[in-house]
Amino acid sequence: MSYWMETAPAAPRPRLDADTATDVAVVGAGIAGLATAWELARAGREVVVLEADRVAAGVSGHTTAKLSALHTLVYDRLRRTRGPEGAMLYAQSQQDAVEHVADVAAELGVDCELEGRPAFTWADDPKGVDALRAEALAAEEAGLDASFVTTTGLPFPVAGAVRVEGQAQFHPRKYLLALAADLTAHGGRVFEHTRVTELDEGDTCRLTAENGRVVTARHVVVATHYPVFDRALAFARLAVHRELVVAAPVGAADDPGGMFITPEGSKRSVRTAPLPDGRRLLIVTGESHTPGTGDVPAAYERLEGWTREHFPGAEITHRWAAQDADPPDLVPLVGHLRPGTRNVWVATGFGGWGMSGGVMAGRLLAARITGEELPWQDLYAPVPGVREAPALLKNQANAARHFVGDRLRSGRERDVADLAPGTGAVLRLDGHPCAVHRAADGTVRAVSARCTHLGCLVAFNEAEQTWECPCHGSRFSPDGSVLQGPATEPLAPREPSPPSPDPVDGASEG
User: Fold this and answer.
1) Residue 22 near residue 35 (C-beta atoms within 8 A)
2) pLDDT tens per residue across span 9-26
3) 131 by DSSP, 3-state: which?
């Protein structure tokens, strides 16, 4: 369990159990959905939020929770792809989001452990210094308080770093639960365990939940991290990856005093959070991988080893993972779901920076729905362009490789009896590819191995005990229920025996 989930429990909210009508229906109760709904409720609109699981329990409950306008290395590229004005608008919109969280937290009187911190992008390798100098200059020209430095608070030397002042970090769950409570106080309705499976567009839109209940709304906002409705071909435009997180208490004197990230190697991200006893919780992220691929237990070992090496004495107390969707051209997709749509909106593709991006999206979508304009709305409009072509082709090629290759792959022969407790594999049972899992107590479950999104074969993540789709990132529990979209339907149950000896997918991929 993530530290944020552990330290901010919440009472359950009701499931939608009757048809209802509203002005705006928001699908997804993460930071983008709640920020949008809160802004609209404060503007006097009637809002319903529909969440498939629990409020702020998905990606927003498993983030590292940096509120920063410095997004690794983005401004030097943006000024080349979107021009100096585009880079400036990006900086303004992201910095506005950072400051808006501080204003809202103060207005609501919520103690969400908000702390001002400088943000750094660092490099160990001297070969990366030129890129950092260019980024510092581009970020400064875009309006951020940015500079190139050669020293940081990290307990090891760096070749160089970009430093940006005026950034922040917080406890995301405490902030979002307060936002949901205030939303409700202003007439908004929030429903949990209400998975939306159908969307009918029109002057009045209809959303159908998996239990058959219907919500009609003038506007619909799809804020499910990865859109569950693919009418904008989001599955072809976004690249999904997971990053592992480990956390360990350290002394206050060992706090490096900032938020840090390096794009080198398997990436490393470092921040701390306050603990009740005066110590700090060191939070380290890295080891990015596509869902359903790689040796995840080994990746956790590498991340823990790096943490202990650079912060001697750190004893890992928490492990979790976060999932991100990368946009095709650095900029999130926030606006109309697709060309020609008038009242269906989307927020996606935050590329690992969903805290500032989600707040920005909430302010942008609320403004659009209420008839206002923001200077950066065109920058984020999800209109396909020529710049996206290389990323789109790469994403499609990766998906096709898994769609075809995973069916052809063969490995060592084994059957259900070969599965050790806590492991899973895709086996052929009665001629069908089945995802078979043996629990720690020996119980065996089998479900269809075909992802219900577009039919790619899932693979087992042993570290998280989940089935994952390597094509577009859908995740399922061992019993087949959906944990993360874009899939909206569970994996169908299968009979776990008798097996045949020809495995479809040779071994668990982690």
Assistant:
1) no
2) 999 999 999 999 999 999
3) helix
Place of tokens 């048809």: 19
In a 3-state reduction of DSSP, which class is residue 84?
Answer: helix
Please list, in sequence order, all residues whose beta carbon lies within 8 angstroms of the beta carbon of residue 122, skipping any fewer than 6 positions away.
132, 152, 154, 158, 159, 160, 161, 162, 260, 261, 262
Tokens of 141: 């020209």
Run of H or E residues at 100:
helix 83-108
Residue-by-residue DSSP string for 351-403: TT-HHHHHHHHHHHHHHHHTT---TTHHHH-----GGGHHHHHHHHHHHHHHH
Tokens of 441: 């107590």
What 3-state class would DSSP assign to 424? Answer: strand
Q: Is 20 exposed, middle or buried (0-12, 13-18, 19+ CB in 10 A)?
A: middle
Rounded Cα gap, residues 308 and 318, in angstroms: 14
The pLDDT of residue 413 is 42
**Residue 200 phi, psi (nearest 5):** -110, 115
DSSP state of 444: E
**Whether the Cβ atoms of residue 72 and residue 324 lie closer than 8 Å to each other:** no
CA distance 86 to 98: 19
Residues listed for the chain? 510
Encoded tokens for 462: 């042993």
The DSSP line for 241-262 is EEEEEEEEEE-GGG--SSEEEE
Q: What is each CA distance from 163 to 68, 71, 101, 130, 265, in whole angstroms?
A: 11, 11, 21, 15, 20
pLDDT of residue 497: 59
Q: Which residue, 267, 298, 305, 324, is CA-closest to 461? A: 298
Q: What is the pTM of this model?
A: 0.90
Q: Which of 165, 167, 171 is nearest to 65 (CA)?
A: 171
Closest CA to 433 of 417, 461, 456: 456
Q: Which residues contact 2 (CB under 8 A, 6 or more apart)?
A: 61, 62, 245, 318, 320
Distance of CA 331 to the CA centre of its chain: 15
Are the beta carbons of 300 and 463 closer than 8 angstroms? yes
Token duo for residue 354: 């969903």
pLDDT of residue 454: 86
Quick one: tokens of 295? 């040796």
Q: Which two tokens stand for residue 228?
A: 């569950």
**Residue 274 contacts residue 113 (beta carbons within 8 Å):** yes
Among all chains, which residue has been given the structure tokens 């510092």?
Answer: 136
Interatomic CA distance for residues 31 and 175, integer angstroms: 9
Contacts by residues 474-477 (CB-CB < 8 Å, ≥ 24 positions apart): 474/291, 475/291, 475/323, 476/435, 476/447
What residue ranges of the chain have pLDDT lower than 70?
A: 230-235, 384-414, 497-510
